[in-house]
Design a protein that fits this description.
Layout lengths: L11 H15 L6 H15 L6 H16 L3 E5 L1 H6 L1 H11 L2 E4 L6 H13 L5 E2 L5 E2 L9 E2 L9 E5 L3 H9 L3 E5 L6 H5 L2 E3 L3 H15 L3 H9 L3 H14 L4
Bound molecules: adenosine-5'-triphosphate and magnesium ion.
Length: 247
């Protein structure tokens, strides 16, 4: 059960998000490490002003454009994403016709099944990941496992809060990688073609909204991709965090 958070509490949104991660751990969706990741994310989000910056908005538009133009787009889902944004994942998959794959750093079949069931309960039609019959080259053990008809075959992959090693190994596979992460200094956004420095809770519905607007407009998709500068986006986010000017 989600703990009640009064709306007038100044940090109500952030507290609600935190409780969703707690509930995710209780429901077997989210690893305990996910609580630590949430805490790190909250600190960065606080310094970003808990809003989507202009630069993140451009990244979200570029992300939507890449997903729409892809032959085989895949949304990778981990325990934090499943707990925080199940409806939004299903909606984005629908908007860009992407496959969904449950893919975990701390992989167990139980947690893959729990995430797949949870996403299906939120309307997902098929969730890949249980049959992880391919590997990401350069990684060892469980961390390398992916579905051959999912992430392994993808040309564009969206990964929320990905671990740095895996993000690097995926981009080395010549995939266009979109990483959503609140820390612009983390390796994962640093290696992404499209680093989205924003909270997943805001980023996922924003990407879907851009996708619905850009659908059927390939020239505008190309323009959104051209207008996005990954280095500038990382720098802008770092500058916002370091300057500490919250409005
Ligand atoms: P590093 O990349 O700095 O070496 P790490 O990525 O292994 O470390 P974690 O604690 O696993 O360290 O990282 C979790 C990442 O997820 C953090 O960068 C944090 O900012 C980010 N994060 C957590 N919650 C969210 C969220 N809701 N939306 C976007 N990013 C988030
Ligand atoms: Mg990281």
């Amino acid at each position: 059960m989600t703990t009640e958070v009064p709306d007038e509490h100044p940090r109500s949104e952030s507290l609600r998000t935190r409780h969703r991660i707690e509930d995710g751990v209780d429901a077997g969706l989210t690893h305990r490490q996910g609580l630590i990741a949430e805490g790190r994310g909250e600190a960065f989000d606080y310094l970003l002003g808990e809003r989507t910056t202009e630069s993140a908005e451009r990244a979200e538009r570029a992300a939507a454009a890449h997903l729409l133009l892809a032959d085989c787009p895949v949304l990778s889902v981990n325990g934090n994403a499943a707990a925080l944004v199940p409806d939004e994942i299903v909606d984005l998959a629908d908007a860009v016709e992407a496959a969904i794959e449950a893919n975990l750093f701390n992989r167990t079949d139980e947690r893959i099944d729990a995430i797949a069931d949870h996403l299906r309960a939120h309307g997902a039609e098929g969730v890949k990941g249980r049959r992880a019959d391919a590997r990401i080259p350069g990684l060892t053990s469980e961390r390398a496992k992916v579905a051959s008809d999912g992430i392994h075959a993808a040309d564009v992959v969206l990964v929320p809060l990905e671990d740095g090693d895996r993000a690097e190994a995926l981009s080395a596979m010549d995939k266009t990688e979109i990483v959503v992460d609140l820390n612009p200094l983390s390796r994962s956004p640093q290696v992404a073609a499209v680093p989205v420095i924003d909270n997943l809770v805001r980023a996922m519905p924003n990407i879907a909204a851009h996708a619905r607007e850009l659908a059927g407009r390939p020239d505008d998709c190309e323009r959104a991709i051209e207008n996005f500068d990954r280095e500038a986006a990382l720098e802008a986010a770092e500058e916002t965090i370091r300057s500490g000017e919250l409005d």
